[in-house]
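Exam revision sheet. Question 4 asks you to relate a sequence to its structure. Input first:
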Amino acid sequence: MSTWLSIRLIVDRIVGAILAVLTAPLVGVLAVLVRRHDRDSPLITVPRVGVNGQTFGMWKIRSMRVDTADGHASGLALTSTNDQRITPIGARMRSLHLDELPQLYNVALGQMCLLGPRPEAPDFVDLENPVWRQVLTVPPGIAGPTQLIVGDWERSEIDKDNNGDAYQRVVVPVKLAIDRWYLMNASPRLDLLVLTSLIRHVLPGGESKRLQEVVAASVPESSLPILSHP
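Answer key, structure tokens:
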């Protein structure tokens, strides 16, 4: 792990704890709205693979209907664009990524960081793969460059085949290649580029191509999602 990442992980825990406290009222309001919608538990944890391959519970505000005894939705961890499991209020939260706010508590606990590779469900992680082992040397992030590069392409691939086979065979290797590149090149400058790209991504008309250009020049595997969604 680079010196920058070691420092940033400590800072992330402090910032994550502060943001968790500041956003608690909003999380509380959203939890009440979800609870009023169908009377089931509004906060859930979903299994994700974290640092050193250890599975942890990633917090989310529930955005899907409950149809299992443990308060979760049944089916694969993959979510298609028109997934019938998503509730109306869940769809609105997902569009603004508000369902991810409780992950700030995971950051405060050191299970996640603010920026980094997104955590994957255990079904799609191969700990025998040396690239996976390298990516899992640091805690996963709430957001990262991979989302900006492969997001639209990933959703289109899942929509075409959401049984998980194509996702694991086609999408995961591309995400791993970008995640590995990010960790090998993590620096204040790169994190600033990722952060500004994420902010511009959520603003109307604010899309930035700079991060895409940087990744395309260094990660050949990224050409597939970039060419698919110019």
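Marking note for examiners. The CA atoms of residues 181 and 211 lie 13 Å apart.
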